[in-house]
Amino acid sequence: MSRFRTILATAAAVVAILCAAPPLVRAQTHVQWASNNACTYEASCSFSFGSNTTAGNLIVACGGFNNGTNAPTFSDSQGDTFSSAIARFNNGSSALVCYYAANIHGGADTLTCSISGSGYCIPAAEEITGAAASSPLDQTGTATPSSTSPSATTSGAIAQGNEIVIGSGMDWSAGRTWTAGTGFNNSVSVLNSSSCGCSAGMESLKLTSGSGTQTATFSIGGADPTAIAVMTFKGASSGGACSPSLTLLHAGRCD
Length: 255
Prior knowledge:
mainly beta
C-alpha cells in the first residue's frame, strides 16, 4: 500500500508542477485601418473598414477634435459595445478620446464618430486579432507636448508579454503628416486640410515580449500643441493553465 501512496503522491506533484506554469498568451496582430480625412463640422461622421472584420477581434478607435466642442463617441454597424480607453483631454484646442470594442461580432463594418451639438471629428480605427475577449485594456497614458517628436508613456507596467501598444495623437493647429515612431510597425496619418486644417495620427506596435512602462512616439512636421495617448491591450490566453486534479480509475493491490 505504501508503494501505491508513493505513486499517487508523485502523480499529484507532477500535475501541480505542470499547472503552476503561467498560461500561454497569443501574439496580437494588426489587421487593418479605417479612417476619414474629410469629416466636416457635423453631428456624425462615418468611415468603414475595407474588408470584413473577424468575429472575436478587437477594434480600437480614436477621435481627435476641437476642445471647444463636446467629445466624440463611437459606435458601429455591427452593434458592438465601445468602452472608453482614454477619456477626454486636451492641449489648447487639440483634444482626443479613444474607445475600444472587444470580442466584436465581425462582418462588414461601418464606424460612426458622433459629437453632440456638432463639431469636427478626425477619426481613425484599427482592427486587431489575438486580443483578450474580455477586459483587454491594460495600461494607458496621456501627454500634452509641443514637439516635433511628441510622445506619451503609460502610467504603469504592462501585465504580460504579447501585448499590443497603440499610440494616437491630435494636432488641431496645423495639418501635419504623422509618422510612426521607432519600432512601431503599423501607422495611419489622417490629414483633414479641406475642412479644419487639422490632423491626427495612430500607430501600433506588437510586443512579443517585454515588461515595464511603454511609450508611443510620433514624428510630425512642427512643434505644435498636441494631445498624445498610449494604450496597451492584453492578448488572449492560448492554454497552458489547468486545475490540478487526479481521478482514480482502478486500484489494485500493491505490496
